[in-house]
Amino acid sequence: MPDVIPRWEWRAFGRHFGEAESRLTALTPDDEQESDEIYVIASAGLNVKMRGGLADVKELRQVDADGLEQWAPVRQSSCSLDTFLAEFAGPRSGGRAVRVHKRRRRYTLEGYLAELADVVADGRRTRTIAVESADASRVLGAVKALGLCGYVNVNYPRGLALLVGGEPARCAAIDVGTNSVKFHVGERDRNGRWRTIVDRAEVTRLGEGLAQRLLIADVAVERTAAAIAGMAAEAKSHGVLATVAVGTAGLRMASNRGRVVAAIEARSGVRVEVISGEEEARLAYLAARSGLGQITGSLVVFDTGGGSTQLTFGHDEIVDERFSVNVGAARYTERYGLHAAVSPDALREAMAAIAADLSRLDGRPSPDALVGMGGAVTNITAVQHGLARYDPAIVQGAVLERAELDRQIELYRSRDADRRRTIVGLQPQRAEVILAGACIVRTVMEKLGRHTLTVSDRGLRHGLLADRFA
User: Which end of the chain is more exposed for a tag (fewer CB within 10 A), N or C?
Assistant: First the structure.
């Protein structure tokens, strides 16, 4: 072979790549190719494939401290398919042949080459995003610029082995909310089912004081960045292939969100993608449907948090409408002093404000099913069942009635935050915002004409994993 320059390569596998994918697809590709190939999952250190009658073998030369891999072609030759398979996938080689169909789009962006490809391997679908250059620093810069530092570099042989070989794949999702940061590590089996490895939340109060100044305070940034850094380290300890993070209402509102996102990335190595309220609602709907099994007829899924509430209207598998409203527990807690015990008149004033801000629900038909998710809904359910220790098996699929909401609203109204913390089932960190959260849930039920709702312990983070890595 003529002299070749080894190239540094970085690649990730998934279903969607968020902002990175959007940034590339907004460009005109340099070229598009569609091909049928045969890869051989062989010994470590080789990338073996055949395309168009040409056998192509690359050798892994080195792996640097950042996990980048340097590959160099060592053989390119014409041969028959039988000869290729006999040499690389025969009984003595131990290799496995995988039929791959690719649709590749290549882009040039800021001096580096990037590729986005749809891949079908032995009937299983995935996507890849890749960056390559003879200069390792360019590859690292591109990965950072695209916001993909949370992904592990996975070469083609390894990625195909995960896809078709049945090996479980672990991924992590982080939901950066106005009041809390939720963290989930899931393991996906070859049939697409997810098993929970880690699921927890930390109350960081990112949106503390946000409503007044539209600025996230430095102390709130520090709390949140520290929590996310710990979660990212924990995800790595579980061997995840990727850690993805999204930010919701608090970051959408903040005028300094760019600086906040940069500070979190510098501390944790994870880029937080600030998503729209409509996208948040879509992911919540996906999480609810995937977690509760078959739901027939019309369905409304709502996810209420510290800064906003997302609502998705659909039927069967179809989403008809989705939107977000600036109705969140932190907002009303600060405005009406709901962290403390309040009078019945003060409570009525707060609920009237919530009802007015939820006027977009007025006059809608009652759905066949209503599903609620988020910290307020799950904490109310834990209190209903007296769970001294949270048990997702009890919470998931539980039914909440309006009468129980009324009971708990009165329970919280008559107590300040310190006394609420003695209530069995209530997360101590949610004592300040639980009254406002319960009022929001109660108002949604009333406006949609439902006396009951089904609780989803799943949330945005579960929908994010299903969307990005299904």
Answer: N
Residue 283 forms part of a structural domain: no
DSSP bridge pairs for 109? 112
- Residue 110, token pair as written in the block: 């800021």
Whether 280 is covered by a domain: the verdict is no
Quick count: other Cβ atoms within 10 Å of Cβ 164? Answer: 20
Tens digit of each residue's pLDDT (9 = 90 or more) over 360-381: 999 999 999 999 998 999 999 9
Say what the pTM is.
Answer: 0.79
In this structure, what CATH number is given to the domain that contains residue 308? 3.30.420.150
| Short-list 392, 408, 394, 411, CA closest to 441 | 408
Asked if residue 158 and residue 17 are part of one domain, the reply reads: yes
- Name the 3-class secondary structure at 403: helix
Which residues in the chain show pLDDT less than 70?
Answer: 1-3, 43, 293-294
Separation CA 411–CA 404 (nearest Å): 10
In a domain, 281, yes or no: no
354 plus 409 within the same structural domain: yes
CA 271/CA 40 separation, integer angstroms: 34
Give the three-state DSSP class for 179. Answer: coil
Q: Assess whether 384 and 268 both reside in one domain.
A: no
Radius of gyration of the chain, Cα coordinates, nearest whole angstrom: 25
Same domain, 335 and 459: yes
